[in-house]
Structure formats: structure tokens, C-alpha cells
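User: My collaborator and I are trying to settle a disagreement about how two of our proteins should look. Neither of us wants to argue from intuition anymore, so we agreed to look at predicted structures for both before our next call. Could you fold the first one, then the second, and keep them clearly separated?

Assistant: That sounds like a sensible way to settle it. I'll keep them separate. The first protein:
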Amino acid sequence: TLRSIISSCEIGEAMMQLESALDRVTWEVAKNLQEKRVLLVWMLDGSGSIAKQKAIIAKRLRRVYGELDALQKTDQIPRHEMPLLSGVVSFGAETKFLTENPTEKFETILAAIQNSPVDPSGRENIFTAVNQVLTAWNRYRVQQHRRIMLVAVTDEAGDDFANQLEPSIA
């Protein structure tokens, strides 16, 4: 996870490793797009402790989506109607859908990440957020036959681990 990558690094080293992790995300999304359409959900820890990581992601995002677009234009990804939709969610004490619905508009995704609010509660309910995302956006999997990919950006294991882990897995 990004948490384990970042927690063991100095800031400069963490930035390089986060960029490598984003390269891996790009590769995984591209690989999945070769098989079917994808809904990519960026799940951001709302605590103030990952502000630097969110800034790195926002800065690098244009490259991630640009590479995916280039792969589609060169027929390395099948040309489906709206092959990639993305959504942005912030989690803390509560889950906030920063994009009301998934979108193909890059600028909407970028703005949602750049403007994601800080949750002052100190709570990080990631597993509750996973359940809420999958419940709210399951129709994209069922009706549009999309693969749902969740990218969680956090520096904690989650405060709701004990009672929400198993439901999230299910």
C-alpha cells in the first residue's frame, strides 16, 4: 500500500516512491482497460497528515491520465465508449463524495483532489468508505460491466478496522 511505502521513507525518498506507486497504478489501470472498462476511484485520507502526498498526486495526475489516453489512441487499449471513468472520495469520520458521480473529465478529477477537505476529527474510516463507495457506485459494475479499482491514499491502517474489514472484503 502507499501507506507502507511512505511511512518508511524520508520526504524526498517518499516523493520518489509515491511517484513510482503512481506509475504502478497507471500500469494496473492500463492492464485492466485491456480487458474491460474501468471505474477508478481515488480514495483520499482526509487527515492533514497526507497533504504533501495529495499535492504530489495532483501534480502527477496529468501524466497518469495522459499516458492512459495515449495508450488508447495507439490502440493498446480497446476503444470503448468512455473506457475510463474516475471518482474522488475523501474519508475521515465521514465519507465525502468529492465527485457526485464518476466522470471522464480530467479537470473535475484534478480539482476534486486539489480541493479535498481536511477532516479535523482525526478519524480514518477507510473500510466504511470502501463499503459506501461500492454500494453507491456498484451500478457501474453491474449495469456498465466496469471493473472497479480503488486507490486508497492513507498513512494509517484505519480506525474502523475491527468492525468494517470483513464487510469490506465481502
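The second protein, kept apart from the first:
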Amino acid sequence: TRKAHEYYTKGLTLLGDDDARRRIDALHNHGDVLCLLGKTDEALEAFRQMLGIAYRLNLQGKGGAAHNRIGRLYRETGFLDEAQQHLEAGLELFERVQDQRGVAASRDDIGRLLWVRGDYDAALKELRIALDMRKELGDRRSIALSLNNIGLVWADHGRPTNAKEALEASLQIRREIGDPVGISESLNTLGELSIDQNQFEQALAYFRESHQVAVEIGERTRIAAGLTNI
């Protein structure tokens, strides 16, 4: 991930402003890498630049993706009103261009925002819509993400059995497709659920495996989360 960051930085410097379409893709990918490295402010700046180019070129799908990423970052840093504005803007743009993957992603992110706000029933409704759309598209990585998010909501909703079922289904898919970031996330969430059930040895096993996976891929945010939980 750190090596990817170095190459994107060099590439964007060499590219300059001459090729806007190539630059918007590079900013999109670089922003995602910066998120993995925990560089939130730099990621936000990359997505803002991406959004500016998308509006100048009237690339509504790319604009939706930029709004979506900005909304996620605002949600993760606690700026929930700003997150809602961007996520709803992203959903509207994806709907205009009939980008079903984008619509599903936006629904999923809005569901997570509603979960953070404590509106569990509305969150589950949005997350299930996203899951059904992703099943139709056959996108297993995204299906796993939706299942993980549904598990999180069930856990906070006081339904540990439902939560574990969804989280284990998500983990299985992530193992099958080789998604180390997702595997680390699922293991960490299952560990937190185990703590709620007073299953401390099981929780520690989940956290240690999650931490090991995060170390192998150099994902600093998840390494820190794993260490904290252990």
C-alpha cells in the first residue's frame, strides 16, 4: 500500500493537468490508497480534486463516486450532516446515469450512516436494498461488504445470533475471493461480537488473526484497531 502511494504521487506529479480523464482515475485510486494508510486529510483532498474535475467535464458517474468517498470520510470522522449531504448527492448522480453498482454502494453507505445515527430499522432497510442489488450484479466482494454491515447493525440492535450469521457469511466470501482488508475487518467485528457475549478467548483469537492480516498488508488503521482490541 505504501509503495502504491509512492507511485500514485509520482504519477500525478508527472501527469499534471494535461489529461483530466486520466487524472480523475488516478485521484480516485490514490484517494482509496490514502484511506487505507489512514491519511484522512490527504484522501479528502484527493477526492475533492476528483469532484472538481468531474463537474468541469460533466462526468456524473465520477462525480457520484467522489461524493460517495467524501461522504464516507465525513461519516468515519463524525461529521454526519456533511456525510449525509455528500452521500445523497452521490446517490442522485448514480441514479441519473443508471449506475447500479454506484446506487448499491450509495444505499449501503447511507445505511451505515443511519446505523451510526442509531436508526436501526431504517439502516437495515437501506442495507438490504443494497445487498439485493449486489446479488443481482453478482459482485461477491460487495455482497460480503453488505453482509458485514448488516451484521454490525444486528449486533447493535441486540440480535447477536443474526449478527454472527451475517458476519460469518461475509468472512467466508472474503476468504474465498482473497480480500485481506475485508478478512481483517470481518475478524475484528466477530471479535467485538464475541466480547459482547463474554467469549473472551474466542475474541482474542479473532483479534490476533485480524491484526496479523493487517500487518501483512501494511494497513495502519486496522493494525492500530487490532492492537487496541488485543
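Some points you might bring to the call about the second protein. The chain is about 85% helix and 0% strand. The two ends are 24 Å apart (CA to CA).
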